[in-house]
Amino acid sequence: MSAEQPQAVVRRGTNLDRVGGFNDTVVLDAIRRAEQRLSRVELAAATGLSGQAISNITRRLLDAGLVREAGRQKSAGLGKPRTLLELEPTGQYAVGVHLDPAVVTVVLLDLTGQVIARRRAQTPAADGPDVLIAGIAATVEDVIAEAGVPRQRVVGVGIAAPGPIDVDRGVVVDPPNLTAWHLVPLRDALRDRTGLPVLLDKDVTAAASAEKWAGGPNGRGSFVFFYLGTGIGAGLVIGDEVVRGSSSNVGEIGHVIVDPEGPLCFCGRRGCVGESSRPRYLVQQAVDAGVVARGIDLDDRHAVDVAFTALCTAATGGPGAAREIVTALAERIAKVVEDIANLLDLERVVFGGPHWDRLAPFFGDAIRETLEERFLVRSVHPFTVTGTALGADVGAVGAASLVLDHTFSPNPSVLLLGPASESAPSGSRASSALSR
Ligand SMILES: [Zn+2]
Predict the structure, then answer these.
(1) Number of separate domains in the chain
(2) Are residues 416 and 271 in the same domain?
(3) Same domain for 350 and 255?
(4) pLDDT digits (tens, 9 = 90+) for 10-54
(5) Which residues form the HTH marR-type domain (predicted)?
(6) Is residue 302 exposed (0-12), middle (13-18) or buried (19+ Cβ within 10 Å)?
(7) How far is the CA of 204 from the centre of ligand 1 (A)?
(8) CA 257 – ligand 1 centroid, Å
(9) 248 Cα to the center of ligand 1, angstroms
(10) If you measure from the C-alpha of residue 88 to the centroid of ligand 1, how many angstroms do you get, rounded to a whole number?
(11) Range of the structural domain that residue 270 is part of
(12) What percent of the chain is modeled with pLDDT above 90?
């Protein structure tokens, strides 16, 4: 469907049953996942559908504005050159929101997963959920307006939020670093304010999904995405599939004890990896070691963040107290990575999150050295330590990519998302995950 057609007709393109059903999503997914453009012949081979079926389906996808023809490929022998197909970037868009206790990031992705607009703002520490949700809704509108895309082509909004979450009800349960939040129905509140379908998922699951879709070689196979932010967490991709766990709350590693002498955690124990990774604790150590000036207010999140940056900068300068503090942090985190990697026989750890840029200069080597000695399967395959190429947007990009996944993946449960979802069994995860 082209933009010139009436709005009602354009909107039909977002409903998969009207695009043509399961086989259409299979073909669209094959085009989306391919690393290069595919011809109809290659699509038939990849999907097991007949040449005639592929011809009909690609015609519908072209008409719907979801794919486009892009060049020709000489065929082997005497056949006609084959026309290649690729996604039409402007076919559909998805919004991604990453709610971190310190910063809210909102991005707009096109159908190919490229970020075409972004906004980032500090999370107001004192505000309750209502004020923050109103702010997020306004930012969603700003990002759509800034990009100048037709609103009816925005398929939905994905929110990446700190766990634990109740995915079925779209509720943020008790995020440890957002004290005013308790059982907040974030998904439905944002749906009511924007009028768009909304999906809520965990921040680390979103980040792992972003890495899988847009991370290049980092995103293949089996890896853990290790999130370093106000909290820490782990997203998992095993055998190219994002692992969710029984309630989509996979990756709660914050209370793994890595230092029995460490700081007291709110859970009542000492030396949990989450608590001993917090900038507040690291800045306290830096003050004690004389790296950061005394007198800093450790309850002032902004001041702590500035001091944390100063600590990281000092650590890159060479050996000394600052370097020791950060290396000890790397060793504590390496212990957790080691356990996850050995437990699940992973190939890679990908680090990311708001703190990664500051820790990356020395962190990678420290973790690599520690793991070199301890990764048990190293004689069978290597284990690599790397950082995300997606930068600080990774959570928001992931949230938007989950919307594209839910909308365009050929997983049959996802087809419930169209109008048919209203009559779907209420227990269905997909129908309840994306709130219309
Ligand atoms: Zn704890």
Answers:
(1) 3
(2) no
(3) yes
(4) 222 333 444 457 888 889 888 988 878 999 999 999 989 999 999
(5) 27-69
(6) exposed
(7) 18
(8) 7
(9) 21
(10) 47
(11) 216-389
(12) 56
Flag whether pLDDT at 364 surpasses 90: no
Q: Is 95 helix (H, G, I), strand (E, B) or coil?
A: strand
Q: How far does the centroid of ligand 1 lie from the alpha carbon of residue 233, in Å? A: 13
> Rounded to the nearest whole angstrom, what is the distance from the C-alpha of residue 275 to the centroid of ligand 1?
7
CA of 265 to the centre of ligand 1 (A): 5
pLDDT in tens, 276-314: 999 999 999 999 999 988 999 998 888 999 999 999 999
b (16+ CB within 10 A) / e for 75-105: eeeeeeebebbbbbebbbbbbbbbbbbbbbb
Ligand 1 centroid–CA 274 distance in Å is: 7
- Which three-class secondary structure state does DSSP give residue 362? helix
Phi-psi region for residue 365, left (φ > 0), alpha (ψ -120 to 50) or beta?
alpha
Q: What percent of the chain has pLDDT over 70?
A: 88
Helix (H) or strand (E) holding 31: helix 22-33
CA of 86 to the centre of ligand 1 (A): 48
Tell how far the Cα of 263 is from the centroid of ligand 1, in angstroms.
Answer: 9
Residue 299 CA to ligand 1 centre (angstroms): 19
The Å distance, Cα 143 to ligand 1 centre, comes to 37
For the ranges 134-138, 153-157, 178-182, 269-273, the lowest mean pLDDT is seen at 178-182
- Spell 9-43 as b/e; 16+ CB within 10 A means b: ebeebbebbbbbeebbbbbbbbbbeeeebbbbebb
pLDDT at 426: 34
332 Cα: distance to centroid of ligand 1 (angstroms):
14
Give distance in angstroms: CA of 217 to centre of ligand 1.
34
Residues 109 and 112: their CA atoms lie apart, in Å, by: 8
Q: Which residue has the tokens 């650590």?
A: 315
Could you tell me if 112 and 76 lie in one domain? no
Give the pLDDT confidence score for residue 435 in this predicted structure.
61
- Kindly state whether residues 25 and 109 are assigned to the same domain: no
Average pLDDT over residues 156-161: 94
Which amino acid does the sequence have at 50?
S
Would 1 be classed as within a structural domain? no
The CATH number that applies at residue 287 is 3.30.420.40
Gyration radius (Cα) of the chain, Å: 23
Distance (Å) from CA 326 to ligand 1 centroid: 20
